[in-house]
Sequence to fold (427 residues):
Amino acid sequence: MTQQGHPRREEASGPVPGYSALTVLECSRCTGDAGSFYDPGQIQGTCACGAPLLARYDLEAAAAWTSPQQIAARPPSLWRYHELLPVASAGSAVSFGEGMTPLLPMERLGAELGVPRLLMKDESPLPTGSFKARGAAVGVSRAAELGAAGVALPTNGNAGSAWAAYAARAGLPCLVVMPTDAPEITRAECIAAGAETYLVDGLIGDAGRLVRGALAARPGYLDASTLKEPYRLEGKKTIGLEIAEQLGWRTPDVIIFPTGGGVGLIGIAKGLRELRQLGWIGEALPRMVAVQAAGCAPIVRAFEQQADQTEPWPDARTEAFGLTVPDPLGGFLALEAIRATGGTAVAVTDEQLLASQRQAARAEGTWVCPEGAACFAAVEQLRRTGWLADGDEVVVVNTGAGLKYPQTMPARPALVSANGQIPASSK
Fold:
């Protein structure tokens, strides 16, 4: 324990019976084939076929070890769900106390959008200001527990700053490569945490190629690229676990999520399926909605074309920089999650999402990130078309703090001289 009483990381002493119900890693594509299962006790990347690996748990054991009532008595962090997480013991958790973010009623904004039962799962209070802290907490914890020499990843910004912070807390070296257009604050966060940081004049795919080249000369480093290791996803799924718990172990009608690489949406769907298997929630799952920017919408295009795979998006551009993922490795998993729940995929323009960002701030006082704002723009669009009904309970996930994107909310206050006067009314 640190002096502040928060867990940092102690030396792992092997799996603790009753702590994690993790049993195996399974390929997300060649399920059931002889070569589709992998040992979770070793550092693993993707399947031999190139598809992401998914963590599988002994849910009967988890149900015997804990219950919703027991979980409610635990500290309010994502580690309260440790039976459904891959880290083998509490001493291996690298933590800043992340998790249990607010689920906020958005009554004024909901009234304006015609969705009175609108809620926002607000991830902005998390360490480094975004939902990426969840994936970094679990991913770094497991990497350290399995003896990784370091971690390396390409990033559009927020994942890099989160992994850099958690790697520093774990005492692991961290290599980050990001596009030159990534938010400047995320670059500063990486450098402040001591990460080896590089900029590339290109997109996240170009950053990924540089990371893969560097990894060839760094034995023992973990490739923490999106879905190139199995545990970032497990951290992200805790968003869904928290939503269910915060609603009294039930689910809303709809969950709307900004989707770049798709890990958050895929993770929420995975977590809710596990809760259903445990019998802790009902059979019906929320309709999952993937929201992308019109300037980079490979999942939306594939959904509309009834395709099972995404194709690379040319010339990807958007103000919602976290959505600039032109060729998501897990695109097929996002499509599966959307279709399995009767959901949909929506693209919004930069003009729409920036207008929604301002609208949410005026109506509710919440300066959401542009990716979260895209979801509110999608709510307006889906309500207008009738896909959303006024009685639907809708949870929008705001994935980060708007403060990290000052350029999206230009400040132009009125200037008044020192000898002047403030008007009696602004109306």
Observations:
- The chain has a mean pLDDT of 94.
- The longest helix spans residues 263-278.
